[in-house]
Amino acid sequence: MISSWLFIILAVLATFAPSILATDYVVGDDKGWTINFDYQAWARGKMLFVGDNLVFNYPKGVHNVYKVNGTGFQECSAPLDSVPLTSGKDVINLATSGRKWYICGVSRHCLDAGQKLAITVFPSSFAPSPSPTSEKSDRKFSAPSPSPTWGYSN
Q1: In sequence order, which residues have a C-beta less than 8 Å from that of residue 88 and are 6 or more positions away?
Q2: Distance in angstroms (rounded) separating the CA atoms of residues 107 and 104
Q3: Is 78 within 8 Å of 72 (Cβ atoms)?
Q4: Are residues 67 and 95 in contact, defined by beta-carbon separation less than 8 angstroms?
Q5: Is residue 6 included in any domain, yes or no?
Q6: Tens digit of each residue's pLDDT (9 = 90 or more) over 81-123
Q7: Are 91 and 53 in contact (CB under 8 A)?
Q8: Pairwise CA distance, residues 113 & 115, whole Å
Q9: 3-state secondary structure of 52
Q10: 118 lies in a domain?
Q11: Rounded to 5 degrees, what are φ and ψ at 41?
């Protein structure tokens, strides 16, 4: 009887542990998703893992968020068939590892004002164990040297 309860408890913990350990990253911190902000500097030193969330905060109707590929990021262009996020509090769950790119598609915000973000998402198996004294939003580490088997591409 005790072993069946233990199994149930472990099964529940295994199901919910990734979401409990997930971190929400507010893109741009207090500045939010805006123009004339260095998002590459903001992302530098942050370790984002599968299961974490990006939160894009901005005044609704002023900006938007497109997920693009590396070429779209470099050229500040979204595919014609893609639909932007426009709520002003867009949450993107980082469900897979690898390189991710986001741009603002309003006017020339990306091209002229640098409103674009490139990140690398690491597999959740690389996530450090949380320490009792650390806050989830302060998770910053030096990136490990990528293994040749990761195969990330730009």
Answers
A1: 57, 58, 59, 60, 61
A2: 8
A3: yes
A4: no
A5: no
A6: 999 999 999 999 999 999 999 999 999 999 999 999 999 999 9
A7: yes
A8: 6
A9: coil
A10: yes
A11: -65, -40
Q: From the CB of residue 96, how many other CB atoms can be counted at a distance below 10 Å?
A: 9
Structural domain that includes position 49: 20-125
pTM: 0.72
Which runs of E-coded beta strand occur in 10-88? Answer: 24-26, 48-49, 53-57, 66-68
2 in a domain, yes or no? no
**For residue range 45-78, what is the model confidence (pLDDT) as tens digits?**
999 999 999 999 999 999 999 999 999 999 999 9
Q: Are 55 and 24 in contact (CB under 8 A)?
A: yes
In a domain, 113, yes or no: yes
Q: Residue 71 maps to which CATH number? A: 2.60.40.420
DSSP 88-146: SEEEEE--S-EEEEEE--STTHHHHH--EEEEEEE-GGGPPPPPTTS-GGG-B-PPPPP
Give the integer Cα–Cα distance in Å for 13 and 25.
23
| Number of structural domains found in the chain | 1
